[in-house]
Amino acid sequence: MTQKTIAFIGAGNMSASIIAGLVKNGYPADNIIASNPSTPKLDALSAQHSIKTTTDNNQAIEQADVIILSVKPQMMAGMLGDLSIDKSIFSHKLFISIAAGLPVSRLEELLVTPTAVVRTMPNTPSLLGLGMTGLYASAAVSAEQKQVAEEIMQAVGKTVWVEEESGIDKITALAGSAPAYFFLFMEGMESKAIELGFSPEAAREIVSQVATGSTEMVRQNDISIAQLRTNVTSKGGTTAAALNSFNDSNLTGITAKAMDAAIARAEEMAKTI
Ligand SMILES: NC(=O)C1=CN([C@@H]2O[C@H](COP(=O)(O)OP(=O)(O)OC[C@H]3O[C@@H](n4cnc5c(N)ncnc54)[C@H](OP(=O)(O)O)[C@@H]3O)[C@@H](O)[C@H]2O)C=CC1
Ligand SMILES: O=C(O)[C@@H]1CCC=N1
């Protein structure tokens, strides 16, 4: 794998997940630098992973081959506009954006110098090496740069390239935002378990074990997800009663509607940032 120096601009949740995944996968900590305006997150990352840190984005970008833009989409223009380094050096570097809803064309405008930009959409399970990242490369990105971006994101999970940039918004709904959907569902089960009299610890443990077991059955089988569901569902039994209740509320339609809302929000963000 490439051992290029990687700078993370913005040391929040998503950067922390990718950094942890990279280091766990053996990426040299000396080749990772994180930049953030406040120090507590930097101190934690430095203590946990022995990576380099700075509060100066210019310094981080200057020494890196690959720059991962990890600030909130709404902060990107301000952050890039505040840089005081000579932007002509950008043409020798690879920029990877993880920002939701921020088109490559807008990033290119903000970076000023013609620059290779890969737009990605990772998710927080990258922390465990179980990430799912969508990638989109603009025409300016070389085959070698595409490979570098892919290798970095594959160090923290699986990757999928999309041909059209609109595919990134779809991956945002399907993977970037999606851990939260599962957490919401698990929260619902956890609170009902507590209402039924289980201790919070037992409720969490049961929900976690059921989720892990179910996920592993999908991962370790070629059986369709629908068939796995059917296998649990005895005719006239308890599962059928629960599923009928979900279907009465159109869970499938609700899920599709929620994913459409995520895509619509990404498209809306693209027009405003
Ligand atoms: N969280 C997720 O699951 C996912 C997030 N993303 C994308 O990742 C990006 C980051 O999200 P997330 O990690 O959740 O957000 P966080 O708020 O956790 O992290 C953003 C970080 O950027 C820092 N920051 C703010 N201004 C600057 C600046 N000028 N220069 C450098 N750093 C700055 C913030 O510092 P401070 O707090 O000290 O102000 C903060 O630590 C977003 O663009 C989001 O769309 C993509 C996929 C999944
Ligand atoms: O909620 C968001 O906008 C970001 C992108 C995907 C996950 N978090």
UniProtKB/TrEMBL annotation:
EC number in record: 1.5.1.2
Role: Catalyzes the reduction of 1-pyrroline-5-carboxylate (PCA) to L-proline.
Subcellular location: Cytoplasm
Coiled coil (residue ranges): none
Originating organism: Catenovulum maritimum
GO molecular function: pyrroline-5-carboxylate reductase activity
Listed InterPro entries: 6-PGluconate_DH-like_C_sf, NAD(P)-bd_dom_sf, P5C_Rdtase_cat_N, P5CR_dimer, Pyrroline-COOH_reductase
HAMAP family registered for this protein in UniProt: P5C_reductase
Pathway(s) this gene product operates in, as recorded in its UniProt entry: Amino-acid biosynthesis; L-proline biosynthesis; L-proline from L-glutamate 5-semialdehyde: step 1/1
EC category: oxidoreductase
GO BP field: L-proline biosynthetic process
Protein name per the record: Pyrroline-5-carboxylate reductase
A Pfam short name: P5CR_dimer
Reaction equations catalysed: L-proline + NAD(+) = (S)-1-pyrroline-5-carboxylate + NADH + 2 H(+); L-proline + NADP(+) = (S)-1-pyrroline-5-carboxylate + NADPH + 2 H(+)
Residues involved in NADP(+) binding: 9-14
Residue ranges of every copy of the Pyrroline-5-carboxylate reductase catalytic N-terminal domain listed in the record: 5-101
Keyword NADP among record annotations: yes
Domain Pyrroline-5-carboxylate reductase dimerisation: residue ranges: 165-269
Alphabetized UniProt keyword annotations: Amino-acid biosynthesis, Cytoplasm, NADP, Oxidoreductase, Proline biosynthesis
Gene Ontology CC terms: cytoplasm
